[in-house]
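Field notebook, page 124. I keep forgetting to write these up properly, so this time I am using the form the group agreed on. The chain and the ligand, zinc ion, are recorded exactly as supplied. Prediction of the bound pose follows.
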Amino acid sequence: MAKWNSQSVQILAKHILGQKVTKIKSLGIYNCRTVNRREASNLSQHAYGLAIDIAGFVLADGTHINLRENYDGTDKKRHFLKAIEKQACQYFSTNISPLDNERHNNHFHFDLKFKDNKQQYCNS
Ligand SMILES: [Zn+2]
């Protein structure tokens, strides 16, 4: 998370938005449950504390950028979120975004699932 924040989030924020991110808004990390809460599914990476759900960011001037409101916009906030999404695969093995399904319409799910897992979304 520290590497992602310093090498991706802060650099993109300064380049695209002209200021630092002062807060990363998380919906949670540890949660002992199965994937998508389906009874027959494997344990989620959240059950191992290896996943985080990112709902948005707060900038130094107090501006909020939220996945729910800004992911489908047309301004710099959307550009920032798309850039975050694109670079996330360099830091996490799974990156699920609002584009992937309705369950993730308000957050990015990033996790450290092993590369050979069949539910991997990052191909690099
Ligand atoms: Zn998640």
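OBSERVATIONS:
- Residues 2-111 form one domain.
- The first strand starts at residue 21 and ends at 28.
FOLLOW-UP: compare against the apo run.
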